[in-house]
Each structure stands twice: as structure tokens, then as C-alpha cells.
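Exercise 7b. C-alpha cells:
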């Protein structure tokens, strides 16, 4: 019978298909592991074996901190949720059926709900109680969504138990606590262990709930990888490979040990368990405890930031991959401070986080969002007496600080334009330079186009192509821009993406798109076939700035850090690593000169003074209109 079943199964799912299915699931993981040992950043060409990305990962505090917080939160959440879930399950098993079923239905809600609903609900709950998000709120959130999984794992096992066993233990003189710990729990231990593993897994890889409930300086691996996904970073491959190695080792050990025990001859005499058998578990627990407790200790210098600034901790909020590699670490070492560095993917995401009550000392964001924050009185004036490096700023760039011309609230961090990026081996340069933004409506480039999934930038492209101001308040012009975008969508069938455009065009997946000049600098540096063009119809000159929110706890230290960022050496290291244009005039000249890193890359030096170029003016009513139009464009 077994042979017949096996033969039937082989006919339904041939071995070849099984192999293909396994490859489908595991080939991406194998790919990541292989390229974690690549000697260059490339994800397409393996140029040689190297451990450089693992070395970089272990030397990068910004990468080790998420590992620390991930493990810490996962362990605590697992222990607490397992204890609460176990006690809850045992208590429910003794309740009346109607009560038990009602509570179990409530328990199932977080499991069936989308994570985003739970995340927003928890965030609003903390806001309503005026609780500032921190590692405490992150732990509460993880414990909350882990408990239902523990209960779901234990309840089926409890239903199979004989109630008379516990009663018999009580009749034989056991106390209720002894009956619980000596009789009931040992029988459901496999289910408890299973629930704990599920809770640990759910906590370890959670992103959505963590993102909305974490506080300053606390991010797990998922949040960190999300913030680092803007550009290729092989250190993420190294981190992912390390996680895969640990998980694989645990699974192998967990499966091999029972097999070894099963093959051993059965011994009739039950031996007393040796105390030495607990040594491996104690050693593992000790190693984990040392890692969790000792991580973060660093040597202290002579400089006393508390005496100087009243604080030794700075909370910084910035775009992902938008700061020099060693800029923060050098500041920490030089001035004996701790910088909590959090990242966001968009200005809107930053605004949501700020409105949730999270406190930051410095935020780096775009011009139009700064306009909104100034209008809402959410920023505090800068201390110009501390900002001695303001005199080094590039005067032509400052012309675009229209939202804060006197730099009362904000100072430039990076600046640039938006332009067309294209592969000159696949796209005709004459088409680009003649048509400008209208090149995106040429049907011969169908299937070759990336279009930024940004309502603001997309309508800028359409309005400029039509000869209108990108800050128009004329609804008829906005309607014409909408129709332009619909025609573009029908003509070239673009792929709507965000930062995926960077690696996508570098690797040749598409040949035409529009990007920020800083991203274009990086892309051209990585692929010599790429070119950048600022259309003759005009474009957006953007300015990302540093500013201090009203809720900042360390404003003096924040002003000191801003001045540090404006200095020549730091600005140079920052701009060289990121690829975006520095507002420091000497740095801009140095990096674009013959001996500079970006010599010959026009995108690094944005054009200035072009009469058709504009900066964005924030208008909530217009943003609402184009948001509605943009949804229709993507649904076309």
C-alpha cells in the first residue's frame, strides 16, 4: 500500500518539479550568500572572493545596533508572551465553553488583521496615553502581537489532556501549583516550545508593527534593511547570510539530535539526569546575556558634553543611505557623545513619525516639507552664534532657500535638480535633448522606462513639459498635466518605482527614467554608459536641509552637530560617500575638479540661474488634487 501511495505521489509531483520548487524558494537566498563574498559592490558580476563586507559589517556600529535590539526585543517578547500565553491558555481551558470561545475569537483578531491595522492601532493607543515611543513601547507591541500565536499553539494540546490527571494529583496531596508545574505543564511542553519558537520568529522578522511603535535610536534588522535599500549595500548581503547561517545551524542541530537519540539503543534503567547536561544551555544563555548587556559599551574621552551642552545624546532623523560612512562615528569619538541615528524613506513618513510624538534633535528633510513645518510652528530657530561655518556655503545654492531665505530655521545639507537619466547605447541622445520631458511619450521606448512613483515629481515633469509652472494653482493646467501623464502611461507603459530605479538602470533592467541629480551622480559613477540631462523646459531645484524641531531635547548639542556637518572635512566626506552635491562651495569645487571623485560627471554640479527652474511651494489643497489624479494615472 505504501509503495502504491509513493508511486501515485511521484506521478502527481515528479522529482524534477520538486527540485524546481526547491530552487525557486532557495535560489534567491543562495544568490545573496554568494554575492556577500564578492570583492566589489556588483550584484551581477562576481569579481572575486573577499570577506571585506563581513569585516565592514562587524566594524559598523550602525549595523550591529539593529542586531542587538532585534535579539533583545525578540528574547524578552518571547519569554513574556510565552509565560502569559501559557497561563492564559490553561485558564481558558477551565472556563465555560461560551467564555472560552468568546475569548479565543478575540485572541484570533490580531492574527487575522493586517499588520498595518495592528501597527496603527498600537501607535494611536500610545499617542492617546501620551506615551512617547521608545524601546518600552516596542516591547509592549511585540509582546501584544506574540501572545495570540502562543495561545493558538497551546490550546489544541490542552484539549487533548485528561482533566482527571490534574484532579488525581490534587487528591494525592499535590498543591495546585505543583499540579500545574509537575503535571499539566510537562504534558503540554512541546506545544509551549512550539509557541515560543513562533513568537520568536514573529518578533525577530517583524517590520510594520516595529516601524510604527519604536522610538529614537531603536531599530531592528527589518527597519534597518528597509532604510538601507536605497542603494546596493553588500554589507546587507553579509548580514542576511549570517542570519541564514545561524538559522540553518539551529535547524540542523534541532533535527539531527533527535535522529541520533532515536538510533541509540534503548536503556531500560532510567538514569538520573546529570547536572553537566545543562552546561550547553547555560553556556548559550550566558553568551547571549553577555552580548545583550555588554553591547554598546565604548571608551569615553576627556570632553564632557553634558557640562558643555547639557546632554550627551543626540537623536538624528535622516533619509536612509544619506550620510557619510564614518561621519557619525567620528563625531561620537571626538566629543564623547551617543548619536541615535534613525532613518525614513520619504518626507511624509518623517512627518507621520514626528506627529506621533517621537522626539528628535535634528531632522534632515526636503524644502517643501520644511515649509509645512515652519507654517505649523513646529521648528525652533537656529543658534547662529554656534554656526560659524555658514560663511562657507555656496551663494548660488542659497538663492533657492526661498522657503527660509534668512536661514532662521534651516541650513542646507544637500541640493540639486531633477533630470533625465538614460543609457546612451539604447536611448538616442538627440531625442532626449530635443524633446526634454516629452521623450517619455515616445512609443519606441515602450517597456524601457522607469517613472518615479511620486505624485509631486511626476506632476512637475508633466507641468514643465506643458510649459506651466510646477507650482501652478490653475486646476485646468493640473487637468492637462493629468492627461499628459495618461498619454505617457499609454505610450511607454512605464514601471512605477521609487529607489529601485537606481540599481535597475545601473544593471540595465531599463534604459530611461528621471532621478535626482545626486542619484544620477552615483549611477553614472557605477555605469559609464549613463548620461544625465536637465530638460530645457525647466525642472525642480530641490534643497534638503538640517533643522531642529521644537520638541528637541538637546538643542545646543544639535546646533553644534549642524556646525560640524557644515565644516569642510565633514562636508567633503559626506558628499563623496553619498554622491549628492554639497552646499559647501570649496567641497563642490574640489569634488568636481580634475582630481576630484566626480570629475566629468555633470550631474554632480547642478545648473543654477536657469529662469525656468523652480523650487516647490507647499500647498495642501493642490497636493490633494494631484494625489487623486496620481491614483487614477497608476490605475490606468
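Sequence design result:
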Amino acid at each position: 500500500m505504501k509503495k502504491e501511495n509513493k508511486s501515485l505521489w511521484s506521478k502527481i509531483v515528479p522529482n524534477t518539479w520538486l527540485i524546481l520548487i526547491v530552487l525557486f524558494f532557495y535560489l534567491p537566498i543562495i544568490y545573496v550568500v554568494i554575492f556577500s563574498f564578492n570583492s566589489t559592490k556588483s550584484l551581477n558580476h562576481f569579481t572575486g572572493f573577499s570577506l571585506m563586507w563581513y569585516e565592514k559589517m562587524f566594524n559598523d556600529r550602525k549595523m550591529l545596533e539593529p542586531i542587538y535590539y532585534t535579539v533583545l526585543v525578540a528574547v524578552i517578547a518571547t519569554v513574556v508572551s510565552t509565560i502569559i500565553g501559557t497561563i492564559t491558555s490553561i485558564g481558558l481551558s477551565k472556563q465555560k465553553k461560551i467564555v472560552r470561545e468568546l475569548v479565543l475569537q478575540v485572541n484570533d483578531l490580531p492574527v487575522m488583521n493586517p499588520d498595518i491595522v495592528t501597527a496603527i492601532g498600537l501607535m494611536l493607543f500610545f499617542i492617546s496615553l501620551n506615551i512617547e515611543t521608545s524601546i518600552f513601547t516596542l516591547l509592549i507591541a511585540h509582546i501584544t502581537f506574540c501572545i495570540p500565536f502562543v495561545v493558538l499553539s497551546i490550546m489544541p494540546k490542552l484539549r487533548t489532556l485528561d482533566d482527571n490527571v490534574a484532579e488525581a494529583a490534587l487528591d494525592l496531596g499535590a498543591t495546585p501549583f505543583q499540579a500545574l508545574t509537575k503535571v499539566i505543564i510537562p504534558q503540554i511542553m512541546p506545544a509551549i516550545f512550539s509557541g515560543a519558537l513562533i513568537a520568536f520568529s514573529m518578533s525577530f522578522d517583524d517590520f510594520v508593527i516595529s516601524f510604527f511603535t519604536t522610538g529614537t535610536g531603536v531599530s531592528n534588522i527589518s527597519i534597518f534593511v528597509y532604510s538601507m535599500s536605497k542603494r546596493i549595500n553588500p554589507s546587507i548581503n553579509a548580514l542576511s547570510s549570517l542570519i541564514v547561517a545561524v538559522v540553518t545551524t539551529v535547524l540542523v542541530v534541532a533535527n539531527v539530535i533527535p535522529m541520533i537519540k532515536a538510533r541509540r539503543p534503548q536503556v531500560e534503567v532510567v538514569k538520573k539526569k546529570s547536572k553537566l547536561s545543562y552546561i550547553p544551555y547555560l553556556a548559550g544563555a550566558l553568551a547571549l546575556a553577555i552580548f545583550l548587556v555588554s553591547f554598546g559599551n565604548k571608551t569615553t574621552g576627556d570632553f564632557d558634553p553634558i557640562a558643555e551642552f547639557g546632554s550627551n545624546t543626540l537623536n538624528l532623523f535622516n533619509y536612509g543611505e544619506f550620510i557619510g560612512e564614518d561621519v557619525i562615528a567620528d563625531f561620537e569619538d571626538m566629543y564623547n557623545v551617543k548619536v541615535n541615528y534613525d532613518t525614513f524613506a520619504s518626507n511624509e513618513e518623517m512627518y507621520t513619525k514626528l506627529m506621533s510624538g517621537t522626539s528628535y534633535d535634528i531632522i534632515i528633510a526636503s524644502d517643501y516639507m520644511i515649509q509645512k513645518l515652519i507654517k505649523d510652528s513646529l521648528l525652533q530657530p537656529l543658534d547662529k552664534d554656534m554656526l560659524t561655518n555658514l560663511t562657507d556655503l555656496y551663494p548660488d545654492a542659497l538663492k533657492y532657500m526661498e522657503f527660509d531665505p534668512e536661514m532662521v530655521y534651516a541650513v542646507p545639507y544637500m541640493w540639486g535638480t531633477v533630470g533625465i537619466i538614460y543609457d546612451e547605447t539604447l536611448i538616442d541622445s538627440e531625442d532626449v535633448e530635443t524633446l526634454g520631458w516629452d521623450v517619455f511619450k515616445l512609443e519606441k521606448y515602450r517597456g524601457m522606462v522607469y517613472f518615479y512613483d511620486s505624485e509631486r515629481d511626476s506632476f512637475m515633469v508633466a507641468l514643465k513639459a506643458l510649459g506651466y509652472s510646477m507650482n501652478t494653482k490653475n486646476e485646468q493646467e493640473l487637468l492637462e498635466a493629468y492627461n499628459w501623464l495618461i498619454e505617457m502611461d499609454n505610450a511607454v507603459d512605464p514601471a512605477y518605482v521609487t529607489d529601485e530605479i537606481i540599481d535597475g538602470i545601473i544593471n540595465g533592467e531599463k534604459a530611461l527614467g528621471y532621478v535626482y541629480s545626486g542619484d544620477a551622480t552615483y549611477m553614472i559613477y557605477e555605469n559609464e554608459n549613463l548620461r544625465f540631462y536637465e530638460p530645457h523646459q525647466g525642472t525642480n531645484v530641490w534643497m534638503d536641509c538640517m533643522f531642529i524641531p521644537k520638541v528637541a531635547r538637546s538643542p545646543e548639542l544639535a546646533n553644534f552637530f549642524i556646525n560640524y556637518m557644515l565644516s569642510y572635512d565633514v562636508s567633503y566626506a559626506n558628499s563623496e560617500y553619498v554622491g549628492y552635491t554639497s552646499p559647501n562651495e570649496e567641497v563642490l569645487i574640489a569634488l568636481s575638479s580634475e582630481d576630484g571623485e566626480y570629475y566629468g560627471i555633470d550631474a554632480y554640479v547642478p545648473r543654477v540661474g536657469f529662469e525656468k527652474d523652480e523650487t516647490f511651494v507647499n500647498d495642501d489643497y493642490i497636493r490633494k488634487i494631484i494625489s487623486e489624479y496620481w491614483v487614477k494615472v497608476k490605475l490606468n
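Instructor comment: The CA atoms of residues 432 and 439 lie 6 Å apart. The chain has four domains: 9-50, 61-233, 308-414+544-592, 416-543+614-635.
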